[in-house]
């Protein structure tokens, strides 16, 4: 499991990039306390601009707990997700995000692709970069 935090100064304010990649704990709660800790941490992320969520392995409930938390981060401008976050259960939560400047989705689901035109329409004033990456 790789969890990294990067801090840098942007426009006089300390901002951070949060990156989750690799193998997150795959056991269910209460053995896996990561989703609970993540919920607590989001309240501390007042200046996060970039979030990358690309785990190769995770507990099935990880996204259900994590994606709604992204809606609570008003400074979020850059988001990268992999296919795990875009299935039928999570696409409706994702499309509630606004004010993104860059959006990268690896292997988007059909459910997300169907919602994408309306979602992009909601972000026409802020979104300047969209990357849909598909691997076979």
What keywords describe this structure?
136 residues, disordered N terminus, 6-stranded mixed β-sheet
Share of residues in helices: 25-40%
What's the tally of helices?
4
Sheet of most strands: 6 strands, mixed
Mean pLDDT: 79
Q: What oligomeric state do these chains adopt?
A: single chain
State which percent range the strand residues make up. Answer: 25-35%
Q: Calculate the terminal CA-CA distance, rounded to whole Å.
A: 24 Å
- Report the structural category: alpha/beta
SSE order, as H and E?
EEHEHEHEHE
Low-confidence stretches: 1-12
Q: Could you give the order of strands across the largest sheet?
A: 1-2-3-4-5-6
Shape: globular
Number of strands: 6
Question: Radius of gyration over alpha carbons?
Answer: 15 Å
3D structure, described in words:
- There is one protein chain.
- The chain has 136 residues and is α/β, with parallel strands linked by helices.
- The chain is 28% helix and 32% strand.
- It has a six-stranded mixed sheet with strand order 1-2-3-4-5-6, with no helix packed on it.
- Helix 1 (34-42) runs parallel beside helix 2 and helix 3 packs parallel to helix 4.
- The two termini are 24 Å apart.
- 19% of the residues are buried.
Brief overview:
The chain is α/β, with parallel strands linked by helices. The protein is built from 4 helices and 6 strands. Strand 5, helix 4 (110-122) and strand 6 form a beta-alpha-beta unit.
Task: Indicate the topology.
Blueprint: E1 2-10, E2 13-23, H1 34-42, E3 48-57, H2 62-70, E4 78-81, H3 88-94, E5 102-106, H4 110-122, E6 129-133
Parallel strand pairs: 2-3, 3-4, 4-5, 5-6
Antiparallel strand pairs: 1-2
Helix pairs in contact: 1-2, 2-3, 3-4
